């Protein structure tokens, strides 16, 4: 096991311990989001320190263009959410909305730095360093995405989360990870993918985090399995061609050591 992969596992353990501690506390939704945001940004700093001590994929850069685009997306998303909350007569929750957005962005940047930068680089320069360039990219992307997907098993610490729901998260996260790895390889901006990841989380789970009642319907196991199969098929059909398109140019280049 390479040094970088051991570091990734250690960071995940730290994150799990902190999550278990936070889960053990009886906190309001707002306070919980505040503490989660603090933990996420702390994990971002820890991951950045780890990245500085390891060899990472060399083409990362954060141009002014992508920084401006990411900033505009964050601002537009915040006001779009305010409009959305107004439909639920919750437009006065500006502070909760801002705090939830901050938490989501922290999660996005932490997970992108950990999986798409640190873990991918550890695989690229460690486990698969002797393979031809195309296979190095392919296997590094594949296993980094698998790791990202399986990391969602930590959601089992919350007994309210059902196994079928977490399985859906793992499937979605795996294909989501492939596309975002492709975006990073194509556009080379951590700021861009961190922001996009955070905004996907922001709009994907806002109801339960901003006090909007959510109704769940019980379904039979057969229906659940059909839904999982459909999710897998749809994600594969969309993500695999897109990932190939995003990474084609990089894979055509020679070795980059």
Descriptive terms for the model:
257 residues; 0% strand
Provide a compact summary of the structure.
The protein is mainly alpha-helical.
Structure description:
- The chain is mostly helical.
- It has one domain (3-251).
- 77% of the residues lie in helices and 0% in strands.
- The chain contains 9 helices and no strands.
- The chain has helices at 3-24, 29-52, 64-87, 94-127, 133-150, 163-187, 190-204, 206-209, 221-251.
- Helix 1 (3-24) packs antiparallel against helix 4, helix 4 (94-127) packs across helix 7 and helix 6 packs antiparallel against helix 7.
- The chain is globular, with a radius of gyration of 19 Å.
- The two termini are 20 Å apart.
- The mean pLDDT is 89.
What structural category do the secondary elements indicate?
A: mainly alpha
Low-confidence stretches: none
Distance between the termini: 20 Å
Give the tally of β-strands: 0
Number of domains: 1
Cα shape: globular
How many alpha or pi helices?
9
The average pLDDT value, as a whole number, equals: 89
Q: What amount of the residues lies in strands?
A: under 5%
N to C succession of SSEs: HHHHHHHHH
Query: Helicity range of the residues?
Result: over 70%
Over all CA atoms, what is the radius of gyration?
Answer: 19 Å
Instruction: Give the biggest sheet.
Output: none
């Amino acid at each position: 096991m390479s040094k970088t992969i051991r570091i990734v596992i250690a960071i995940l353990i730290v994150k799990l311990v902190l999550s278990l501690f936070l889960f053990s506390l009886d906190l309001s939704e707002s306070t919980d989001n505040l503490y989660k945001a603090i933990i996420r940004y702390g994990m971002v700093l820890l991951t950045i320190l780890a990245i500085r001590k390891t060899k990472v994929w060399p083409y990362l850069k954060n141009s002014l263009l992508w920084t401006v685009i990411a900033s505009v997306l964050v601002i537009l998303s915040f006001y779009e959410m305010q409009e959305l909350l107004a439909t639920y007569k919750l437009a006065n929750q500006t502070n909760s909305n801002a705090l939830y957005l901050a938490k989501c962005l922290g999660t996005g940047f932490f997970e992108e730095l950990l999986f798409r930068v640190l873990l991918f680089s550890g695989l690229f320069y460690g486990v698969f360093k002797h393979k031809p360039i195309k296979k190095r990219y392919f296997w590094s992307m594949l296993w980094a995405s698998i790791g990202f997907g399986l990391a969602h098993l930590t959601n089992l610490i919350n007994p309210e989360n059902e196994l079928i729901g977490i399985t859906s998260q793992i499937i979605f996260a795996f294909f989501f990870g492939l596309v975002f790895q492709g975006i990073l390889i194509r556009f080379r901006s951590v700021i861009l993918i961190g922001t996009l990841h955070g905004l996907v989380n922001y709009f994907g789970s806002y109801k339960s985090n901003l006090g909007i009642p959510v109704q769940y319907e019980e379904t039979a196991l057969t229906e659940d399995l059909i839904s999982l199969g459909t999710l897998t098929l749809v994600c594969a059909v969309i993500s695999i061609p897109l990932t190939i398109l995003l990474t084609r140019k990089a894979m055509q280049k020679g070795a980059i050591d």
